């Protein structure tokens, strides 16, 4: 359900305004109305900085915490953030340095470890050593007769050699003679051992920086979170000031906000105690009211699914409690294997202990797993094994309660029709809440037509009434539904416009209703495909296992684990997505869902600070 909201207007003397904001933030129940959507430059800077802090926090979460005796000397979250940015830059620098030194190492490797000082000493005495290379197949041994050459070695298809030149007065103006087919290399001005030492030094610095990061991940996460909260606090305060208007030449500050009915008494007591002038009223038709949902423990788990689409507006029903049982049932229908359901329930229970922050999501997974177990039992499927056709004596007494493939197909259609009709009932309630009962007569007409026709067909098929009586009842259903759909579909229009609009409504419903119901066949298709995949992997495990007492069972178990793991993942994904589509397209449409609501976000202190 949607918690009713009250619209508050506060009038506060300017000198007491900051104190007032501090107090209502501490109470934490007022959702401040947005009048100005253009953030100030200061807010834009805070948003940018908050994004950077959030990125650093996420990077820290990905690191394995490392406890050591030495605690980082970081006293505040801001210091943690600044240090993380410095480490990030230093790591990037050392990484680039290592890449450069590795490149130098690759260039020096063919030449071995030599001393550049000796090369320079020879140059001072007029002896120049030139480092040359060419492809091995292009090396001409006659070069050795023409020039002073010394082959150093071969590597990766190239021959490396030095050409020794003598020049007493320095390098000639026109340069030394070139060797056609060979290239001269310009090597780094350091030895291979020096390059290796630099690489080791940079790697050592990288290890030290990474070690510090892991230390920060262990000791300083709370500080960074507090800093994140501080920035959010500043943003919230800046936004409150942005949404404040000034009255009486700036001497009075005016602020508007929304308060849930469940929190109203607490705020009223504070305002009266501090003699703050305010007004409280119910929302108007044009007000953009924030949405706060309040559901029971079961329906609350499904709010995360409803929020994937859109929140309802404050004038309509919250559909989460109404689609939750259907969604659970459809998931079980789509997966439909009792063994897979047990795996999901067990995995969710294990994840609850490992990740307490995902407790509600894991509880939802357990409910969905339970639905899968129920439908798996109903269809006689356990890890791809067809229990209905299996020769298991103790199951014979319950096989009569299991359903066949044809019955499963019919069940999918029946579930679809039930959910769509139920959605139309909710549409009547929604229209009545928003516009009034008389605007819902057309939808009531369609309900009478669909339910009435179905009831007549059932009575006739069960021979409860004679065909003649069934015909009379059906005509009455047509007449009543026709008047409501074609004539009374809008109370403020004339009859001729209503008839035209009604005919268009008939065309729209005739073309979409059948398609909506047939969409639920996907539940049947997903359930059957899941069972077939499991059966295929069972057959593969039996046929591909080696005829060996030891390795045979091992190979079979590996194939079963991998195969059923793939099936659970793929089928669970389909069982999660397709019921969402049925909910948001077929059910929401027939329930007349409008949406457009924005979540209730009170002006409050961060949760961690509040808990303190």
Architecture overview:
The chain is α+β, with helices and mostly antiparallel strands. It has 4 domains: 1-31 and 243-291 and 598-612, Alpha-Beta Plaits (2-Layer Sandwich), CATH 3.30.70; 36-96 and 200-232, no CATH class; 114-190; 297-590, no CATH class. It is 59% helix and 10% strand. The chain is built from 20 helices and 11 strands. It has helices at residues 17-27, 41-61, 77-108, 116-124, 143-146, 192-219, 221-242, 264-273, 297-300, 303-306, 320-335, 338-354, 359-379, 405-434, 441-461, 467-487, 495-518, 521-544, 551-590, 607-611, and strands spanning 5-13, 31-32, 127-135, 149-155, 158-166, 183-184, 245-247, 252-260, 277-281, 381-382, 385-386. Strands 1, 2, 7, 8 and 9 form a 5-stranded antiparallel sheet that branches. A 4-stranded antiparallel sheet has the order 4-5-3-6, covered by helices on one side. A two-stranded antiparallel sheet has the order 10-11. Helix 18 (521-544) packs antiparallel against helix 19. The two termini are 31 Å apart. It is a multi-pass membrane protein. It comes from Mariniphaga anaerophila. This is V/A-type H+-transporting ATPase subunit I. GO terms for molecular function: ATPase binding; proton-transporting ATPase activity, rotational mechanism. Belongs to the V-ATPase 116 kDa subunit family.
């Amino acid at each position: 359900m949607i918690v009713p909201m009250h619209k508050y207007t506060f009038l506060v003397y300017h000198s007491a305004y900051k104190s007032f904001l501090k107090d209502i933030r501490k109470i934490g129940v007022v959702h401040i109305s947005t009048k100005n959507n253009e953030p100030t430059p200061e807010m834009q800077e805070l948003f940018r900085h908050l994004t950077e802090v959030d990125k650093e926090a996420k990077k820290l979460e990905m690191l394995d915490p490392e406890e050591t005796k030495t605690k980082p000397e970081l006293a505040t979250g801001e210091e943690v953030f600044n240090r993380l940015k410095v480490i990030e830059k230093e790591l990037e620098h050392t990484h680039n340095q290592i890449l450069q030194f590795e490149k130098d190492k690759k260039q020096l490797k063919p030449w071995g470890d030599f001393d550049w000082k000796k090369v320079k000493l020879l140059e001072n005495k007029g002896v120049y050593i030139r480092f040359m290379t060419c492809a091995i197949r292009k090396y001409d041994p006659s070069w050795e007769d023409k020039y002073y050459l010394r082959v150093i070695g071969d590597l990766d298809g190239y021959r490396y050699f030095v050409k020794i030149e003598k020049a007493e007065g320095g390098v000639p103006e026109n340069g030394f003679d070139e060797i056609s087919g060979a290239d001269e290399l310009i090597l780094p001005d350091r030895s291979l051992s020096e390059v290796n030492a630099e690489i080791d030094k940079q790697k050592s610095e990288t290890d030290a920086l990474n070690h510090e990061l892991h230390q920060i991940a262990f000791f300083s996460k709370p500080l960074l979170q507090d800093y994140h909260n501080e920035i959010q606090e500043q943003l919230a305060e800046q936004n409150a000031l942005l949404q404040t208007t000034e009255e009486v030449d700036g001497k009075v500050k005016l602020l508007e906000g929304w308060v849930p009915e469940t929190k109203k008494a607490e705020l009223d007591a504070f305002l009266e105690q501090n003699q703050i002038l305010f007004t409280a009223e119910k929302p108007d038709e044009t007000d953009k009211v924030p949405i706060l949902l309040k559901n029971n423990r079961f329906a609350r788990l499904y709010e995360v699914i409803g929020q994937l689409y859109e929140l309802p507006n404050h004038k309509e029903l919250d559909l989460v409690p109404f689609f939750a049982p259907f969604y659970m049932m459809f998931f079980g229908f789509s997966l439909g294997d009792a063994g897979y359901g047990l795996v999901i329930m067990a995995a969710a229970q294990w994840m609850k202990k490992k990740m307490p922050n995902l407790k509600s999501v894991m509880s939802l997974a357990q409910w969905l797993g339970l639905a899968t177990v129920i439908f798996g039992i109903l269809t006689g499927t356990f890890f791809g094994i067809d229990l209905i056709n299996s020769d298991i004596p103790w199951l014979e007494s319950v096989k009569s309660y299991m359903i066949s493939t044809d019955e499963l197909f019919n069940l999918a259609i029946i579930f679809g029709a039930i959910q769509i009709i139920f959605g139309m009932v909710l549409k009547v309630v929604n229209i009545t809440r928003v516009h009034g009962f008389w605007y819902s007569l057309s939808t009531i007409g369609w309900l009478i037509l669909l339910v009435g026709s179905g009831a007549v067909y059932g009575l006739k098929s069960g021979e409860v009434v004679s065909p003649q009586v069934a015909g009379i009842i059906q005509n009455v259903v047509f007449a009543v539904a026709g008047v409501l759909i074609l004539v009374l579909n809008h109370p403020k229009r004339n009859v001729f416009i209503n008839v035209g609009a009604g005919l268009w409504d008939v065309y729209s419903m005739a073309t979409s209703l059948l398609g909506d119901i047939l969409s639920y066949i996907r539940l049947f298709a997903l359930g059957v495909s899941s069972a077939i995949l499991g059966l295929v992997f069972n057959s593969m495990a039996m046929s591909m296992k080696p005829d060996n007492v030891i390795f045979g069972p091992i190979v079979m178990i590996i194939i079963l684990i991998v195969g059923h793991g793939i099936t659970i993942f793929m089928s669970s994904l389909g069982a999660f997505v397709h019921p969402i589509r049925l909910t948001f397209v077929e059910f929401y449409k027939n329930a007349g869902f409008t949406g457009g609501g924005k979540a209730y976000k009170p002006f409050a202190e961060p949760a961690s600070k509040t808990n303190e």
